[in-house]
Amino acid sequence: MTVLSRGFRRGRSDRADDRLPPGQYDVGDAFPVLSAGPTPQTRLERWDFSVHDQTDELRRWTWDEFRALPREAVSVDIHCVTTWSKFDTRWEGVSLDTLLGDVPGTTRYILAASDGGYTTNLPLDEVTAGRAWLVDTYEGQPLAPEHGGPARLLVPHLYFWKSAKWVRRLTLLPYDEPGFWETFGYHNHGDPWREERYSGD
Ligand SMILES: Nc1nc2c(c(=O)[nH]1)N[C@H]1C(S)=C(S)[C@@H](COP(=O)(O)O)O[C@H]1N2
Ligand SMILES: [Mo]
Fold first, then answer.
1. How many CA atoms lie within 13 A of 160 on its CB side?
2. Which residues surround ligand 2, an ion (CB under 5 A)?
3. Residue with the nearest Cα to atom 21 of ligand 1?
4. Predicted structure pTM score
5. What span, in angstroms and rounded, lies between the C-alpha atoms of 184 and 135?
6. Which among 54, 132, 62, 140 has a CA at the least distance from the CA of 100?
7. Domain definitions of the chain by residue range
């Protein structure tokens, strides 16, 4: 397994201050749980993950099929819009490059959908080229249900609301469609280094 270190530090040094985006603080060893609803309980025998276009299912994996895909380990800093950041979080999972494969040429955005109804939108070119993963392991352990287990998105260069927990489906779209928080006043894009917290920022 490749071990990558991707801090998205943009040439900054390792000093904590330089790794904190504006308006953020280092939460240290804590790992807050932020969920808009109850934690879904999906048994692994019933879990699947699929990629759709506007009309069809293009790809689908059972849990065992997903676990057999090529895996990567990543160590990244994460940034929540509620102002906590957490350094050097270690995850394992499958790159979205692997899951998306060749997408229809009209694809510009993806909409991620989770058990429980949560959605979030992302530009295609920000979840490809090694910038996003479907992760099932955190710090060497199966991802805890409250943190999105069995599997969640990890898109560390954007605020953490874009990292959908309990994600089950990606829909490929030629246009942008706001997700849950993006509809309720969060910024559509969510770059922590530009402080894109709320719509209008
Ligand atoms: N399905 C789902 N995914 C979600 C959320 C949610 O409520 N439901 N909350 C988002 C927000 S606002 C944040 S900050 C992170 C929190 O992840 P954590 O609970 O593992 O810290 O998950 C994101 N993904
Ligand atoms: Mo958040």
1. 23
2. 34, 80-81, 161
3. 33
4. 0.94
5. 26
6. 132
7. 24-34+47-176
Q: Is the Cα torsion angle 121, 124, 126, 129 positive or negative in sign?
A: positive
Distance 82 CA to ligand 2 centre (A): 6
Q: What is the pLDDT of residues 137-146, one digit of tens each?
A: 999 999 999 9
Question: Do residues 174 and 113 touch, judged by C-beta distance below 8 A?
Answer: no
Q: Which amino acid is at 170?
A: L
- The structure tokens listed for 7 are 């801090």
Could you tell me which CATH class the domain 24-34+47-176 is placed in?
A: alpha beta
Provide the 10 A C-beta neighbour count for residue 200: 7
Q: Which atom of ligand 1 is nearest to the CA of 153?
A: 24
Q: Where are the beta strands (DSSP E) in 63-195?
A: 72-79, 84-95, 109-114, 119-123, 133-138, 141-142, 152-154, 167-173
Distance from the Cα of residue 61 to its chain's centroid? 18
Q: Which residues contact 51 (CB under 8 A, 6 or more apart)?
A: 57, 58, 59, 60, 99, 100, 169, 170, 171, 172
How does pLDDT run across 33-78, given as a tens digit for each residue? 999 999 999 999 999 999 999 999 999 999 999 999 999 999 999 9
65 C-alpha to ligand 2 centroid (Å): 30
